[in-house]
Amino acid sequence: MSLLQTLAKRKHLLFALPVLVLILGLTFTTYNVKGFSFVKNTALAATCSGVGYGLTSGGCNGTDPAATGCADNASTVISNDIYDQTGSLIGLVELRWSNTCSTNWTRGSQYIGCGSFNCIQNWMATLWWHNPKTGACEDWNYPGSANVTTFWSNQEYAPVLNVESEAYVQYNSNGDNYYGTGYVANSNFGSLCF
Description:
This protein is α+β, with helices and mostly antiparallel strands. The protein has helices at about 5-30, 65-70; strands at about 30-35, 35-40, 75-85, 90-100, 105-110, 120-130, 135-145, 150, 155, 165-175, 175-185. The chain folds into two domains: about 5-40, no CATH class; about 65-185, Immunoglobulin-like. Helices cover about 15% and strands about 45% of the residues. The protein is globular, with a radius of gyration of 25 Å. It starts with a helix and ends in an 8-residue tail after the last strand.
C-alpha cells in the first residue's frame, strides 16, 4: 500500500474519530454504566396522576411516591421534631408535597440507628386526610421494623385537602423501650382529623 493510500485511510479515521468521541460523549452523558447494563440517568417521569379523593379513586392514591416518580422534585410543606418520653430528639416528621402529581404523603426519619446499646424496633408513617365526599377521616398507614433511616407513607391526591402527618419511632436502649410520635398538619382547607 502506498503512502498516499495510507494517509487517505487515516484521513477518514481522523474525521471519524471526533464524530465517534462526540457520539460516545452524548451517550455517556445520558447513561451511566452500572454493572454490565446501561441505566438512563434522567428523572423518573410520574407514572400516575391524581383524579379524585379517597381509598378507591385510583390515580396516585395509595401508591408509593418514590416508585411513581412523584417524590422527584417534591418539597416539605411543614416538619416537626420527634422526641421520646425522656425528651431526647429521636427523629423528624415531614408533610411532603409533589407539584407534579398534586399529592401529599408523610415522611419520617429516625436518628437512633442500631448500635451496641440501642436499636430501632418499629416505625410508622401515617398520612391522614378529611375526605370531602364522605366526610370521613381516611389514612395511609405504613408500619415497619427494619433499621431504616427514612420511611414514608403512601400518597393521596390532595391539592385542596387538609392533610396531617404522623410519624412514630420506637427503639430499645439497654433493654428499655423508648418511643415518640411527631405530628404536623396543613389546616388551610377546613377541618382536621385529629
